[in-house]
Amino acid sequence: MQRARLFSSLLAVSFPWPCNKAPRLTNYSATGIGYAISESFAKAGVARIIIIQRRESVLAEAKASLEKAYPNTKVETYAASQSDFPRMTEIIQSVGEIDVLIPCATNTSSFEGGTAVHPTKTIKTENIAADYTVNVIGLFHLIREFLALPSTASGGPKSVIHVSSCAAQLYIPGMAAYCSTKSAANQIITNFGFDEPEGNVKFYSYHPGSIATPLATEYVPADGVTWEDGESSVQYIAVSRILLMKSTVKLSGDFAVWLASPEAVFLNGRYVWAAWDVDEMIAMKEKVAGDSSLLTMSLVK
Amino acid sequence: MAFNFKDIPQVRPAEIKTYHSVTYDRVSPSNSTFDAKGKTLFITAGGKFPLAVQ
User: Which domain does A273 fall in, by range?
Assistant: First the structure.
């Protein structure tokens, strides 16, 4: 059970959408995790949502759906890539006031070559560089420009929430680039968070959870995984995929809202899973405060 | 050695007993302590794919 969950989690944030053999720069979430986050914040009642994505059609669909369901939330969209640093600076400065910054874009051009597992030594240097440009340096740049806004100096509380992956913790054959970018980005979040523990901006990384996506099932051999419902992936696709995806991806979104709440402040600089029960995490508050290596990229004691 | 996806180890890195796979009341945005009033969310890759499954 847990293995299936873990695997679908990895896929959920690992592969570009739709399945495409061509190498490319991506700046979109593979599974709708980013949209689920947007929707959860709209449900919470934010006044404004700024969405950055490369494709106009994806932006238009988000704006139309969100503004229809949540008329009190204004949605603004910019067709741009997280790897375009000057453009990100320009957009952030024009937006002016940001309370919650969520770097969710992930690049996976190192998966060039399709679904087969390719040894690390076969990854093209330019592809791993492209992954780092978006997933690590792009994330750093967004945060840096956000912190340069006047509103972060005195206002508050504000949050930066990095949509990470449990891939940050794992060896997964063929995914050297993806796994290591997620570890690196987690480290950047920890450094920002620990630099100014009393600051009015808090920093978090989280693994968004077990999302059984159409793409995940596409990549998984029919007999390769025991899915959560105990069905083979073929039956799974036919019967329960859509329902499960809808309910699990909601958790990814709702958990991000919880991270932005005052209850999560003790997790500043840390990395957590959306699957973890929030009250059990709160029960760990003193332990977390007393151990700066806990819930970070560090050695297990 | 051939890699089998079934061999991916379980990873439960903290002392959490309760794992959620679907959303639950405690994290519902409707009764969150996050004060959303007047706030701005800035998100990359927050769009929606125009697909029937969503």
Answer: 2-289
A296 domain residue, yes or no: no
Region class of B50: left (phi > 0), else alpha (psi between -120 and 50), else beta: beta
Three-class DSSP labels, A142-208: HHHHHHCCCHHHHCCCEEEEEECCHHHHCCCCCCHHHHHHHHHHHHHHHHHHHHCCCCCEEEEEEEC
Q: Which residue of A has its CA nearest to B53?
A: A242
| A160 vs B: CB within 8 A | no
Active site residues of A: 164, 178, 182
Choose among A46, A166, A254: nearest Cβ to B41: A46
pLDDT of B52 > 50? The answer is no
**What ipTM score was computed for the predicted complex, to two decimals?**
0.84
- Chain A neighbors of B3, CB-CB under 8 A: 117, 173
CA A185 to chain CA centroid, Å, is 11
Query: Which structure tokens are listed for A52?
Result: 């950055």
CB A196 within 8 A of CB A156: no
Within-domain flag for A114:
yes
Question: Which residue from B minimizes the CA distance to A215?
Answer: B53
> Which tens digits make up the pLDDT trace of A137-191?
999 999 999 999 998 987 779 999 999 988 898 887 788 998 999 999 999 999 9
Nearest to A254 among B28, B41, B45 (CB): B28
Nearest Cα of chain A lies from the Cα of B32 at a distance, in angstroms, of 7
CB atoms within 10 A of CB B30: 11
Please give the structure tokens belonging to residue A93.
Answer: 């400065």
Question: A297 lies in a domain?
Answer: no
Provide the sign of the torsion angle of the four alpha carbons A105, A81, A59, A51, taken in this order.
Answer: positive
